UniProtKB/TrEMBL annotation, chain A:
It catalyses: a quinone + NADH + 5 H(+)(in) = a quinol + NAD(+) + 4 H(+)(out). It comes from Arcticibacter tournemirensis. It is a multi-pass membrane protein. It is found in: Cell membrane; Membrane. Gene3D superfamilies: 1.10.287.3510. NDH-1 shuttles electrons from NADH, via FMN and iron-sulfur (Fe-S) centers, to quinones in the respiratory chain. The immediate electron acceptor for the enzyme in this species is believed to be ubiquinone. Couples the redox reaction to proton translocation (for every two electrons transferred, four hydrogen ions are translocated across the cytoplasmic membrane), and thus conserves the redox energy in a proton gradient. NDH-1 shuttles electrons from NADH, via FMN and iron-sulfur (Fe-S) centers, to quinones in the respiratory chain. The immediate electron acceptor for the enzyme in this species is believed to be a menaquinone. Couples the redox reaction to proton translocation (for every two electrons transferred, four hydrogen ions are translocated across the cytoplasmic membrane), and thus conserves the redox energy in a proton gradient. GO terms for molecular function: NADH dehydrogenase (quinone) (non-electrogenic) activity; quinone binding. It comes from the Bacteria. The keyword Nuclease does not apply. Its EC number is 7.1.1.-. Pfam families: Oxidored_q2. The gene is nuoK. This is NADH-quinone oxidoreductase subunit K. One of its GO terms (biological process) is ATP synthesis coupled electron transport.
TrEMBL record, chain B:
Gene3D superfamilies: 1.20.5.2700. Keywords: Membrane, Transmembrane, Transmembrane helix. The lineage of its organism: Bacteria, Pseudomonadati, Bacteroidota, Sphingobacteriia, Sphingobacteriales. Signal peptide: none annotated. The keyword rRNA-binding does not apply. This is NADH-quinone oxidoreductase subunit L. NCBIfam families: NDH_I_L, PRK06590.1. It comes from Arcticibacter tournemirensis. The keyword Membrane applies. The gene is nuoL.
């Protein structure tokens, strides 16, 4: 039976890198372009996952498990961040009835 | 007594402090008393020192008071040096100064700044005594600057009058120009001799060869200092303007103190000058030129004090001429006699001005002989003395200088005698215009004419006696004397005497020289008599047409105007340029521009901080990309 590692290794590394770059770019564009705070959040998740993908791929190719450990850390971090971030967004929505980030131009002071 | 020398400058300093602090509440009688007493006490101590010094076999006494400047190998003590030169000078300064103080009691009696005046006078005497007593160039320089300061304060005493203030400023600035020369000379002296003490410097200098470039440079710079203080070409124009001060001030500045400082300094540094023949020639030529220039100006002046002022410039020229030909004793002799008769003449002029209710124009005087007998006779004595008619004091001193000049250079001598004739002419012209003929002033003035109070006439009488008999201290051998002054000062000039040659004129030649100069002086006096008494000539009014020579002389060779055009105007222009272009435009522009640029940049950058999250994020990503690109291409 093929191990997960072998399955991963079955695809060339360049493909992972390309896919990861594409997902990351989509995430970046999402953060830059979208105005809904929740969509921005999701785009951030996209970027994080692009990185996770790369870490997993490299870890498999390298034969070193520490990369995959990092992926778990990042997931835990992302979960914590979403918990805090969503709470903030909910509060913002309650105060402004909107999650449009362009309304939130109060950072200038 | 001699170790009490520190008392001599201390008394006037105390007088200055007491009168200066108490100027608003001390009664006038006390102020006058303190002012005079301070100088009198100094005079008493000076006389004691003089007596003790002439009795003792020592020729010089050095009294260090305290160590003053100690830095590296520079060590300057605040010390006094009493020798034959300074003890005599002390007597002259305090003696004549005292008489002028007494006179001031009467002259300044109605002035509001009475106490201020006396405190300044005391301060003047204090600084002059420091100058005289200092045992090194630096202490001398304190006194040198101090008298400059006091002259500024006193010339501009009536400071509410703008032209008086500017006269004071002119004196101050011109003196500063000379002082720069003196100061550089002192630095050079320290650089080359490693000390500024007179004793050390002169001992080292005496070993140097004659004409050493260092010595020439130092002496030339010292002489620059002397031209400022003693009003020689080209720095003499402040002295006539200094007449703006109260008359006792003119007497003090002109006679016993400030203007003789240059001569004193050169006499003190005689060995340096003896060893620099080039400088000696420069000194002699400048002295002679000044003597003649000032004399030719004096013959047409109509302000009684201006005549005397130019006469002082001229007489100082004679003293420098004497120094320049190596007649140190003669020059110093003339300092002493000149102190007597010039103080007398100024105080006399003050008495006339006092009687005339502040009128100084000779053309509006005349016939004062009967009304002011004491003033008349004392001034006549002073005039005869300054004209060099025997046996009055001026004859001996001037003749000694001229005899040395004759031996040195015959042409100088001829010019010198012409100068002496001019002196006699303008002095008698002044006396005739003032005291002879009919009164030319207003009725009111004529009604007011009165002899001055005793506090003014007594100093006049004392000075007149001194002017008449003052010559006895230096009667030359040829006239049966033994020239006490030359013998007394011999130790001071010993090093110079050793380098030079003694006066070696035949007695018959000396008689001839005397006859020529005395004859010339008498002829000039007679010409003045014929013109101003017999023919009753009165100088023309300011606007009258004059002959070309008279016009040049009357306008003082336009020297002030020339200085104005050559120095003042370009300087003003330059200052204007620096002020308007360099300072206002360039420097202010840079400074203000920096400020403006910062504030503009802030205003621009503020717009970036709009608080827009999308924009912030965009900038962040752009920044990261830029960093990555930078790292990519860098590596």
């Amino acid at each position: 039976m093929e191990t997960v590692t072998q399955t991963i290794q079955g695809v060339p590394l360049n493909h992972y890198i390309l896919l990861s770059a594409i997902i990351f770019s989509i995430g970046v564009m999402g953060v830059l372009i979208r105005r809904n705070a929740i969509v921005i959040f999701m785009s951030v998740e996209l970027m994080l996952n692009a990185v996770n993908l790369l870490l997993t791929a490299f870890s498999a190719y390298w034969g070193d498990a520490s990369g995959q450990v990092f992926v778990f850390f990042i997931m835990a971090l992302a979960a914590a961040e979403v918990a805090v971030g969503l709470a903030i967004i909910v509060m913002i929505y309650r105060n402004t009835n909107s999650t449009d980030v362009n309304v939130l131009n109060r950072l200038k002071w | 007594m001699i170790n009490l020398v520190w008392l001599v400058p201390l008394f006037p300093l105390l007088g200055f402090l007491i009168n200066g602090i108490g100027r608003n509440f001390l009664p006038k009688s006390i102020v006058g008393l303190i002012g005079c007493l301070a100088v009198l006490l100094s005079f008493g101590v000076s006389a004691g020192i003089f007596y003790e010094l002439s009795e003792s076999s020592a020729t010089s006494y050095h009294q260090p008071l305290f160590s003053w400047i100690n830095a590296g190998n520079l060590s300057i003590a605040f010390a006094f040096q009493v020798d034959h030169l300074s003890s005599l000078m002390m007597l002259v300064v305090t003696g004549v100064g005292f008489l002028i103080h007494i006179y001031s009691i009467g002259y300044m009696h109605n002035d509001k700044g009475y106490a201020k005046f006396f405190s300044y006078l005391n301060l003047f005497i204090f600084f002059m005594l420091l100058l005289v007593l200092g045992s090194n160039y630096v202490v001398m320089f304190i006194g040198w600057e101090g008298v400059g300061l006091c002259s500024y304060l006193l010339i501009g005493f009536w400071y509410k009058n703008d032209s008086y203030s500017s006269a004071a400023r002119k004196a101050f600035v011109m003196n500063r120009i000379g002082d720069l020369g003196f100061l550089i000379a002192v630095f050079l002296i320290f650089r080359y001799f490693g000390s500024v003490e007179f004793g050390d410097v002169f001992a080292k200098a005496a070993l140097m060869p004659a004409g050493a470039p260092v010595l020439v440079l130092i002496t030339l710079l010292l002489f620059v200092g002397a031209t400022g203080k003693s009003a020689q070409i080209p720095l003499f124009t402040w002295l006539p303007d200094a007449m703006a001060g109260p008359t006792p001030v003119s007497a003090l500045i002109h006679a016993a103190t400030m203007v003789t400082a240059g001569i004193y300094m050169i006499a003190r540094s005689n060995i340096l000058f003896t060893l620099s023949p080039v400088t000696m020639d420069v000194v002699a030529i400048i002295g002679l030129a000044t003597a003649i220039l000032a004399a030719t100006i004096a013959i047409t002046q109509t302000d009684i004090k201006k005549v005397l002022a130019y006469s002082t410039v001229s007489q100082l020229g004679y003293m420098f001429l004497g120094l320049g030909v190596g007649a140190y004793t003669g020059a110093f002799f003339h300092v002493i006699t000149h102190a007597f008769f010039k103080a007398l003449l100024f105080l006399g002029a003050g008495s006339v001005i006092h009687a005339m209710s502040n009128e100084q124009d000779l053309r509006l005087m005349g016939g004062l002989r009967k009304k002011l007998p004491v003033t008349f006779f004392t001034m006549l004595a002073g005039t005869i003395a300054i004209s060099g008619i025997p046996p009055f004091s001026g004859f001996f001193s001037k003749d000694e200088i001229l005899a040395h000049v004759y031996e040195h250079n015959k042409i100088f001598w001829i010019i010198g005698v012409i100068g002496a004739m001019l002196t006699s002419f303008y002095m008698f012209r002044m006396v005739y215009l003032t005291f002879y003929g009919k009164f030319r002033g207003t009725h009111e003035q004529e009604h007011h004419l009165h002899e001055s109070p005793p506090s003014m006439t007594i100093p006049l009488i004392v000075l007149a006696v001194l002017s008449v008999v003052g010559g006895v201290i230096g009667i030359p051998e040829v006239l049966g004397g033994h020239h006490w002054l030359a013998g007394y000062l011999a130790p001071v000039f010993a090093m110079s005497t050793a380098k030079g040659t003694a006066l070696a004129l035949e007695h018959s030649t000396e008689y001839l020289l005397m006859a020529v100069s005395v004859g010339g002086a008498i002829i000039a006096a007679v010409i003045a008599y014929v013109k101003y008494v017999a023919k009753r000539h009165v100088p023309a009014s300011d606007h009258a047409e004059r002959g070309i020579l008279a016009r040049i002389s009357y306008n003082k060779y336009y020297i002030d105007e020339i200085y104005n055009a050559v120095v003042t105007k370009p300087l003003d222009f330059l200052s204007g340029f620096f002020y308007k272009i360099i300072d206002k435009a360039a420097i202010d522009g840079i400074v203000n521009g920096l400020g403006k640029a910062t504030s503009l940049a802030g205003r621009g950058l503020r717009l970036l901080q709009a608080g827009n999250i999308g924009f912030y994020l965009f900038m962040m990503v752009a920044g990261i990309i830029a960093l990555l690109l930078y790292g990519f291409y860098k590596i």
